[in-house]
Amino acid sequence: MEQRKHKTKMAANRADRTSSVLSSVLLQILLYLSAFYSLFYFLSSLCMIIYKSQMLSYPDKYLALDVCLLLLMAAFEILRVYWGVRGNLQESERYVGASLLLTGATLLLSVYFLVWQSYVLRADVIINAILLCIYGLSGVAGFGVLARFTSGVARSDSKISAKALFEQRKKYSNSNFIMQETSQYHVQHLSTFIMDKTESIATVEDAIKKLILLESKGKIWTQEMLLQVSDKAIKLLDCDTMEELENFPLSTVHHSQTVLNKTRYPSVLLLVCQDSEQHRPDIHFFCCDEVEAEIVHADIDSALGDNKNGKKMRPQTLKVNQEKMKRHRETIIPPSESKEFSPGMKGRVDMQNVERQSSVQQDTESNEKLAQRIEKEVQILNCALDDIEIFVARLQKATEAFAQLNQRNKNRKNKKRGPAEGMLTLRAKPPSEAEFIDSLQKLKLSFNLLAKLKKHIQNPNAAELIHFLFGPLEMILQGSGSPDLARSVISPHLSREAVDFLRGHLTPKEMTLFELLGDGWTRPRADWPREQCAPLYIPHFRNGWEPPVELFRMSPWETECSDVLSVSSEEFFGSQSSLSSNGSFTGTPSGRRYVKVLYSFVAHNVNELSVLQDEILEVIESDNQWWKLRNRSGQVGLVPSNTLTLITLEDLHSVDPMYSQSFVGTSSSPLGRGNSFEKPRSPRNKDFRMQQMDEVNDELLKKITSSKNQPPTRNFKVERHSGPAIALRFNSSASDVTAWLQAKEFSKATVDCLGILSGAQLFSLNKEELKAVCGPEGARVYSQITVQKSQLERSQGDSELQEIMIKQREKIASASK
User: Does the keyword Transmembrane apply (predicted)?
Assistant: First the structure.
């Protein structure tokens, strides 16, 4: 309960911030208020018309007109309130727009009764003036809500990528099907109530009202599951493990009903179940998000009818349902042109006006660019806070379900599982360790951003948000069982500014908790040795928005380390020689050799190294056709020797001023090999370096694949390592794709995600789709499948390119002799 207070306070203090729920509480209150006041208004107006017709000389024709207009206004008002409430709850532009049109009509009629009716009493003026005020407020709120709905703010599902479309259709087919006499539907369990008069639930309608009440307060937490209907029972299954959660024999299902358009879940299925051991029936509510509730309801009703009457009506119902589901699957929304979701322009964290003094900014960026950068950082902060709130809410629901489950276990007299305990068990399952780590990383990111944006945000300010965030942090630590998991979260580092900001604003209790988290939280990045610094942290948000990577690369918590991850040119080459009195070079250090790359080469596995034309590298081993080299970034790998040429120090000096600068300096002692190249490589740098290599691969692959019509001037084929190789083709099966991914040493998560596809399906995915499924590793998958596709095209008869490659290889061979 304490955490719920924290969460509610966070939401209330950041009410401006974009959320996935766009319905307006203010509009809802105004609509209910106008409904009650309208009832009073129409009764009062009717009584006054009757009074004036008896006491005053009311012309008959005007009397009839006034009564008709009053009744018309009443009809308009009923429709206005109904459509407004429905449109606000369902986030429907159509219903809200219709309600606004009727607001204009009723407003005009109210002005008529205020100004133009035959006799206007003082009471008429008062009640009409109040009504006009309510209409004005409702109209303003309605237009605001309509603007939010039509702009599509925070609707990540409105823009769907091709991969998302493919995954959506595949998930739909796997979760929703009809096979012989068994049907299965993907649903979301909303809530379960016991029909008990002490709980004010005596009928199904009472249960529906309670569901609507809980939903309006944000106390509904959905749980995905599969609802399976057969000729004997209705089963609920876990989506991931297919474990049976509940089994309701048809004889225990007493009622089935749909609840449509009464909450923000437009399609809801209701089941009333009671077995022989239950004193009171349970009422279960399910949101039918992929298949309409009417389809599921028709299926269950036909199964109940056949079980009760012994008829065989269900096969025909299943046939009709199957056709409806097939049509729905084929009409899933096609992919949008846009590839990136952008969060709302206005976040819950507001920005102050940025001062118009560019000279104050250390990075000398213009005011416009500064404002854009701050806006992006505020959006990142908002997305991080959204994800933290969602995780904390889920964690709290799991805790509540676990407590209910323990209470039931204490009161249970036998080992048989009670009704609805399967769903409680599923709800009580805590989040995975990866989800805990993700939330802790976003908490650290939020601390960094709050410290950086402390001068630019308000309502609430950065210090207040810091205090609010320690509530979720404490609950996450309690949910994980101990601080050990939080202590292991190093990435992202905290900036020195963030650590100082925290220490300057935390309460003693919060400071004790902060110190408990260890060096990963209390020690800024600048205090970490370079080899222990964590790799670049790029968050992944639930709404699908991908922030610009450049913002993180240049952020203080990624750049404060005294030694950056990449090796500078001075470190790479070192003080290779001493300077004579006239400034000339006297020689090269013994045992150090360098090569220049003649042709760009793309790495095909983790043992090889991608290189660019004219790049300079150090030779480590040169015993065979594949030389082991090290580049300026410290990466080591194999490169074919026929793409290289040895260079002298004079050649190195003339290649590029960038390289020659490393030789111009004082005559300090030369850096040893261990200093410049043999620095320990932390395992944490692997992903970052792999990302760097992927970027090089992508650039090279674009050059290769874009030159089909105009072959490059230098393109050749090099011999690959001898050994078994697994080829990927368009007709490869899912097992072949899995084997190929494993051979390329991709992570298990990537293999699991992509191993279900055929070769043709894998080749059809673009880079953005692969990144959406596999995360940062998607770029490397794209590089590898592009290479495979290019090899397939060459092997299928690109003779002209083959001839060019042979000539180039012969030219290189003759030059080497």
Answer: yes
Q: Which tops the pLDDT comparison, 559 or 698? A: 559
| 8 A C-beta contact, residue 284 and residue 421 | no
pLDDT at 194: 86
pLDDT attached to residue 253: 92
Strand partners, 618: 594, 630
Answer whether 260's CB lies under 8 Å from 446's CB.
no
Element of type H or E holding 479: helix 462-480
638: β partners? 608, 628
Delimit the domains of the chain by residue range: 23-151, 171-330, 367-559, 569-669, 687-816
> What whole-number distance in Å separates Cα of residue 679 and Cα of residue 673?
9
Cβ(350)–Cβ(458) below 8 Å: yes
Residue 351: the pLDDT is 46
Q: Which two tokens stand for residue 293?
A: 């509730």
CA-only gyration radius of the chain, Å: 35
CATH number assigned to the domain with residue range 687-816, chosen from the 4 options 1.20.120.790, 3.30.565.10, 1.10.150.50, 3.40.50.300:
1.10.150.50
d(CA 236, CA 422): 8
User: HSE-up of 663 (CA within 13 Å, CB side)?
Assistant: 24
- Distance of CA 352 to CAs 16, 344, 416, 629, Å? 14, 17, 60, 52
Residue listed under structure tokens 């008429």: 124
Q: Tokens in use for 277?
A: 């051991």
Q: What distance in Å separates the CA atoms of residue 277 and residue 171, rounded to the nearest whole number?
A: 37
Q: How many CB atoms lie within 10 A of CB 591?
A: 7
Tokens for 669, please give them. Answer: 């002692």
Rounded-to-5 percentages of helix, strand, coil across the chain: 55, 10, 35
Of 78-87, 101-110, 264-273, 759-768, the range with the lowest mean pLDDT is 759-768
SS (H, E, C) 134-182: HHHHHHHHHHHHHHHHHHCCCCHHHCCCHHHHHHHHHHHHHHCEEECCE
Comparing CA positions, the residue from 315, 128, 325, 164 lying closest to residue 229 is 315
Q: Which of 423, 434, 427, 425 is nearest to 480 (CA)?
A: 434
The CATH fold of domain 569-669:
SH3 type barrels. (2.30.30)
pLDDT at 419: 62
Q: Distance between CA atoms of 634 and 613, rounded to whole angstroms? A: 18
- List the one residue out of 242, 307, 250, 239 whose CA is nearest residue 273: 250
Assess whether pLDDT exceeds 70 at residue 170: no
Q: Are 662 and 572 in contact (CB under 8 A)?
A: yes
Each residue's pLDDT tens digit, 459-482: 778 888 888 888 888 888 888 777
Long-range contacts of 758-761 (CB under 8 A, 24+ apart): 758/731, 758/732, 758/733, 758/734, 759/728, 759/729, 759/730, 759/731, 759/732, 759/733, 760/730, 760/731, 761/166
Residue 513, number of CB atoms within 10 A of its CB: 18
Q: Give pLDDT tens digits for 695-708.
A: 545 554 554 444 44
> pLDDT for 376-388, tens place per residue?
888 888 888 888 8
Q: How many CB atoms lie within 10 A of CB 24?
A: 20
Q: CA-to-CA distance for 801 and 696, rounded, in angstroms?
A: 23
Instruction: Write out the E strands in 274-316.
Output: 282-287
Given a cut of 50, whether residue 670 has pLDDT beyond it is no
Indicate the fold that domain 171-330 takes in CATH.
PH-domain like (2.30.29)
Question: What gap in Å lies between CA 280 and CA 278, rounded to an integer?
Answer: 6
Secondary structure of 757-807 in HEC code, one letter for each residue: CCHHHHHCCCHHHHHHHHHHHHHHHHHHHHHHHHHHHHHCCCHHHHHHHHH
Give Cβ neighbours of residue 454 (< 8 Å, ≥ 6 apart). Answer: 461, 462, 463, 501
* CB contact set of 585 (below 8 Å; sequence gap of 6+): 577, 579, 649, 653, 663
